[in-house]
Design a protein that fits this description.
This protein is α/β, with parallel strands linked by helices. The protein has nine helices and eleven strands. The strands form three sheets. Strands 2-1-3-4-5 form a five-stranded parallel β-sheet, sandwiched between helices. Strands 6-7-8-9 form a four-stranded antiparallel β-sheet, with helices on one face. Strands 10-11 form a two-stranded antiparallel ribbon. The N and C termini lie far apart (about 65 Å).
Length: about 250
C-alpha cells in the first residue's frame, strides 16, 4: 500500500487501455494492480484490500457482471466498483448495478471524469459510525455497513447503503431527489438514469418477498422509508388543511 492509501485494481483485457489507465493513475499517486480476465480479478480481489476496482464488463473466462456479483455475494466485499462498458442501454446499466456495481461509465470516456467518479466512490465508501437504525423490521447498522430485514441480510452497494442510510435517518420524512443527490453525490451529481436505477435496485433489495413495502415514492415530493404510507398522506392532508385555515 502506498502512502496515500489508494490501491486500485484495473480489470481490463485490452492491453492498450489497461496501460493507459494504469499509467494515468500511477502518475497521480495511486498504486495499481492489473487483471486480464475475470478469474484473475476474483483471485486478486479476494486477497487484497482494494480501495476501488475498475471493472470492464466484457472479459475472458468470467464476464464483468459475474465477477461483480461474486465479489459482493461470495467474497462479501464492499469495495467500490466502477464498471466500464461499451454498452449503454438502461437494461445494461441496471444489470451491472444489480450485480453490485456502484457506478457505470460508457466507453469512450474522459479519463478525468473517470478519476472524479472513482474519487467520489472511494470517499462515499468510508464507514460512518453511528447507532443502528430501525424502521419496522428493517435494521441498518452504519458502523458495520450492514442491513437486514426480518433477520435476513440485505446486500447493498456503498451507494445503495448511503441512500438507505439517508432515508432511514430521516424517516418518516420525505427526502427529495435533490437532497439525495446532494447527500450522496455531493458536487458530482449523477444523471437521472443512474439515480433511478439505484432506487429501483434498492427497492427490490429491501421490499422483495415482503408484504409491506417500506420504500415509498411520494409523487412530486421524493422518497421515504416507512410502514404506513396512508398515515403520511393523512398527516400531510392535515397540515395542508391547517395551513389553508390559517
Amino acid at each position: 500500500m502506498n502512502q496515500n492509501g489508494r490501491l486500485i485494481l484495473i480489470v481490463e483485457d485490452h492491453l492498450s487501455i489497461a496501460e493507459m489507465l494504469g499509467g494515468y493513475f500511477e502518475s497521480g499517486g495511486y498504486e495499481v494492480d492489473y487483471a486480464r480476465d475475470g478469474a484473475e480479478a476474483l483471485r486478486l480481489s479476494a486477497n487484497n484490500p482494494y480501495d476501488a476496482i475498475l471493472l470492464d464488463r466484457n472479459l475472458p473466462r468470467i464476464d464483468g457482471v459475474e465477477v461483480c456479483r461474486r465479489i459482493r455475494q461470495e467474497q462479501r466485499r464492499s469495495t467500490p466498483i466502477l464498471m466500464l462498458t461499451a454498452r449503454d442501454t438502461v437494461q445494461d446499466r441496471v444489470e451491472g448495478l444489480e450485480a453490485g456495481a456502484d457506478d457505470y461509465l460508457t466507453k469512450p470516456f474522459s479519463i478525468e471524469e473517470l478519476e472524479a467518479r472513482l474519487r467520489g466512490l472511494m470517499r462515499r465508501s468510508r464507514k460512518t459510525a453511528g447507532e443502528p437504525i430501525r424502521v419496522g423490521d428493517l435494521v441498518l447498522d452504519p458502523h458495520a455497513m450492514s442491513a437486514e430485514r426480518g433477520g435476513t441480510a440485505i446486500h447493498l452497494t456503498p451507494i445503495g447503503f448511503q441512500i438507505l442510510h439517508l432515508l432511514m435517518r430521516e424517516a418518516p420524512r420525505v427526502v427529495s431527489r435533490e437532497e439525495i443527490q446532494r447527500e450522496v453525490w455531493r458536487d458530482e451529481p449523477p444523471d437521472s438514469d443512474s439515480l433511478r436505477s439505484h432506487l429501483y435496485i434498492l427497492r427490490k433489495a429491501i421490499d422483495r418477498g415482503h408484504d409491506t413495502p417500506l420504500l415509498q415514492t411520494i409523487p412530486g415530493m421524493g422518497f421515504r422509508i416507512g410502514e404506513h404510507p396512508s398515515a403520511f398522506t393523512a398527516s400531510r392532508n392535515q397540515r395542508e388543511s391547517a395551513t389553508a385555515q390559517g
